[in-house]
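Researcher: Quick test of sequence recovery. C-alpha cells follow.
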C-alpha cells in the first residue's frame, strides 16, 4: 500500500472536478429538511485492523439503507485532522472517521463522524489497544457506538478525498462531534503523526442539506 503525499495535494491531477470533497459545511447556507434519509439496518462491526501507511483502516461489515437503497460497509478509516470543517468553528476538529459503504452497483456512500478533545472514548480505546498488539484485535469491535445516530447530519454529493478522487459519492457528515481524550489522540499520533486531511474544496453551487 503506497503512502499518499499530502504535501503535494496540488499535484493530484484527478482533483479538478466540480463535485470534490471535503467541503466547508455552513448551516446558514444549507437546505433544512426533517425527512430522514438513512437507516442503520444492522450493527457496524470492525473485524480487522489495517495499517494504511497514512492512517488506520478497519475491515468492517454492516448495512445502511439510504434513500431506499441498501449499502454494505466495506471499510472504515481515519483522517487527522478532520477533513470536513464547520464554518462557525475557528479550527478543524481533531479527527474524522469515514465509514465507506457501497451498493450493488458499486456506488459509494461515506458517513463522516468527527471527534473533539474531551472524555475518553471506550471504543477508540479498543482500537488503540489493537494497534499496540501489531494491529490485531482480540475480537470484533462494535463500531455503531461511533455514530451519533440521533444527531443532525449534512448530506451532499461529492467525491473520495484521496486519489483517484472519484466523484458521484454520497456524503453523510454528522454535525455533532464525539469525544476522544488528548491522551488517545497522542496515542494515535504515535503511529500516524503526519496530518492526512485534504484541503476543503469549492462547493460550486452544490445543494447541501442539513437533516
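Model:
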Amino acid at each position: 500500500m503506497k503512502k499518499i503525499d499530502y504535501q503535494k495535494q496540488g499535484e493530484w491531477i484527478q482533483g479538478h472536478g466540480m463535485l470534490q470533497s471535503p467541503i466547508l459545511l455552513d448551516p446558514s447556507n444549507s437546505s433544512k429538511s426533517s425527512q430522514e434519509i438513512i437507516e442503520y439496518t444492522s450493527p457496524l462491526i470492525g473485524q480487522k485492523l489495517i495499517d494504511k501507511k497514512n492512517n488506520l483502516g478497519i475491515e468492517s461489515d454492516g448495512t445502511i439503507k439510504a434513500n431506499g437503497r441498501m449499502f454494505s460497509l466495506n471499510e472504515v478509516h481515519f483522517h487527522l485532522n478532520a477533513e470536513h470543517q464547520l464554518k462557525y468553528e475557528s479550527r478543524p476538529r481533531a479527527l474524522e472517521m469515514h465509514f465507506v459503504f457501497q451498493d450493488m452497483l458499486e456506488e459509494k456512500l461515506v458517513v463522516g463522524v468527527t471527534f473533539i478533545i474531551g472524555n475518553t472514548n471506550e471504543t477508540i480505546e479498543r482500537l488503540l489497544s489493537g494497534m499496540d498488539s501489531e494491529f490485531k484485535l482480540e475480537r470484533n469491535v462494535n463500531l455503531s457506538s461511533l455514530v451519533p445516530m440521533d444527531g443532525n447530519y449534512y448530506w451532499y454529493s461529492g467525491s473520495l478525498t484521496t486519489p483517484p478522487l472519484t466523484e458521484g459519492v454520497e456524503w453523510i457528515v454528522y454535525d455533532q462531534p464525539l469525544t476522544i481524550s488528548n491522551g488517545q489522540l497522542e496515542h494515535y499520533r504515535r503511529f500516524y503523526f503526519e496530518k492526512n486531511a485534504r484541503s476543503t474544496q469549492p462547493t460550486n453551487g452544490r445543494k447541501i442539506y442539513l437533516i
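The chain has a mean pLDDT of 95.
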